[in-house]
Amino acid sequence: MQKQINPFLAFFILILLAFIAGGYILLEINYPDAFSLENFLFKRNPPPVATTTPIVSNLEELKKFASEEDFKKYLEKSEISYGYLGSARAMGIGASDEKISLEAPSAINGLGGGGEAPERVSETNVQVLGIDEPDIVKTSGKEIYYSLSGYYSGPVFFEERYIVPPKDTGKTKVIKAFPPDELGLDSDIKETGSLLLHKNILIVFSNNKIFGYDVSDPKSPKKKWTSEIDDKSYFKDARLYNDKIYLITQTIINASKPCPIEPLRAEGVALTVKCDQIYHPTVSFPADVTYNASVIDPVSGKIEKNISIVGSSYYSILYMSDKGIYLTYSYSGNLIEFFSKFFKEKCQDLVPSWFIEKLEKLSSYDISDSAKQTELDVIFQKYQNSLSNDESLRIENEFSNRMSDYYKEHKRELEKTGIVKIGLEDFSILASGNVPGKLLNQFSLDEYKDYLRVAVTVGEGFWGMGGMGSVRESANDIYVLDKDLNINGEIKDLGLEEKIYSARFVEDKGYLVTFRQIDPFFVLDLSNPQKPKMSGELKIPGYSSYLHPITKDKILGIGQESSQVKVSLFDVKSAENPKEVSKYNLSEYWSDVLSTHHAFLLDTKHQIFFLPGSKGGYIFSYKDDNLKMIKAISDIRAKRAVYLDDYLYIIGEDKIVVLYEINWEEVNELDF
After folding, report:
1. 3-class DSSP state for residue 10?
2. Which end of the chain is more exposed for a tag (fewer CB within 10 A), N or C?
């Protein structure tokens, strides 16, 4: 009679196989500042993840498909199910270095309408100065363009944080803003969504369509062009730089007919991407989408250039410098090789030689990853059936303890982030590479003097890998990559058993916040790309989920402490001894700044910054290194603020309030 399988041993192999996919869910739930509808969709329907070997960091590891059949064979190796995304469009998925974005420049060219324009004009708070990002508010200096699409009428508590459900209807409002005594509504545009403004052209990213409006006459905007994103594709992100729109879309791969694809139609003319125009890694890869990067003329809407790359939509991030576009995506390491090395290095006294030999052969088989996982289960079961009950109990404990030690040494082999760099000059792929772990957001990446700095968390998704009841074995690393995306330098094991909550790179310095119970604030010296180092550390309660450089030696952190919004001012003049020189706790649980940096506004002339909250809008002074609230505006569901000369416009869901920054008196108000 066949001996009954020990429940733990059967569970052991299933848990290890499931950690790759399940770990992503654990990781996302515990990132309160990384929430997005796209990530919410994946939490409800976690993507299946196949094993893969790492991408070698050189251009030769990316090649184009030869044909549709070539594409299909590539997909079969991982046997990924492509249906988990469902209808991304139906779920409403849409718009979400050497230069320091301390505050937006004040010079605005090509203002619409006539009359005198302000000398100081704020712009959207962006990561890289001069590279604009889509947001719900844009200003020309005389007009304010405001879209309410996708925002709540009030905060709702959900999974340990406030979020806001999208409104079903709304309009993009064209508002006469300057001078403030003439504040009024000029017109409405029926389309809503994220906005970009190029001279007199307002670009609206609205669900699966993109519109270009001529707003030279603010009272009568005219639609100039329309582009439509395919139903199997969705908007990922966009940038505006050097009079060009850089658009990133993702097309869900159809395994039965993966190519050609038509991700975008401009004025009714489809962009057709043939099979032999799509790049892919040469190694087996759990691909579920094809990225499409396009260069678009904002005046005509014409698609000028395009490049397509196979990738994974999970934890995909866009970062853009003035030299290139970086696309990233997360994927698992080679689980079969991980097990094979574990048993060979740590368990030779526990398992027979035939067991290890079969695992080593299994790694070399030219079969799909899912088939390898099935075979691994069979091999393990055969071994387990050879054990007595007493021996099974002993092996159970040995495996658990030895895996804990092994995982500490090898956790970076289990999760990877692939990186592809696209050059702006000729819009071609310049390099590809990978780093261990996962990124938090776009601020986890930064290019400076031809080096890419990357901040990652490793091991957070594999809680429990070290055995039942084990602690989280997470760590946080910094990697410095050269222009070919090869790793040149690294800092490992920052904030052990914690995870990254915010990162910011400023020239040859880096700032990192990790958190679980306290908030370690790290100062990094990146002046030597081959030997980066951690210079100083400060441990304080709470965490900061957004970091903003106020001056060269002052960093502002915005986060939470004891379920309240916390604002901290860090003095980093002495990198070895960073200090929290001032702190302010708001009687607010949530601020939009915790989920989007676009909600933050800095005005260095008056040494103030603005934060929206669920109860109102708040203006803080940081003069003399002291955080002081100088004005609070209640009865407004504040979302953004802009300044025009010395007037601060607080923009809420139902009205705009204008304050004079000299005495902070209210000078005008407009109800919608």
Report:
1. helix
2. N
For the chain, how far is it from start to end, CA to CA, in angstroms? 78
Pick the closest to residue 504 from 443, 573, 594 (CA basis): 443
Closest CA to 159 of 1, 244, 44, 287: 44
User: In this predicted model, what pLDDT tens digit does every residue of 25-72 receive, in sequence order?
Assistant: 333 333 333 333 233 222 333 333 333 333 334 445 789 999 999 999
- Amino acid letter for position 36: S
**Could you tell me the sign of the dihedral formed by the alpha carbons of 218, 221, 227, 229, in that order?**
positive
Question: How do strand 278-281 and strand 303-311 relate by DSSP bridges?
Answer: parallel
pTM value surpassing 0.90: no
Strand runs labelled E in 200-302: 201-206, 209-214, 222-229, 233-241, 244-252, 261-266, 269-273, 278-281, 289-296
Identify the H or E element spanning 357.
Answer: helix 353-364
Residue type, 201: I
Q: Calculate ∠ Cα 640-641-645, nearest 5°.
A: 160
Q: Which two tokens stand for residue 30?
A: 């515990």
The string of DSSP codes covering 306-346 is EEEEEE--TT-EEEE-SSEEEEEEEEE--HHHHHHHHHHHH
Residues near 624 by beta carbon (within 8 Å), at least 6 away in sequence: none
Q: What is the mean pLDDT of residues 217-225?
A: 97
Tokens 């590891």 -> residue: 61
Helix (H, G, I), strand (E, B) or coil at 448: strand
Q: How far is CA 175 from CA 406, 588, 655, in A?
A: 61, 29, 11
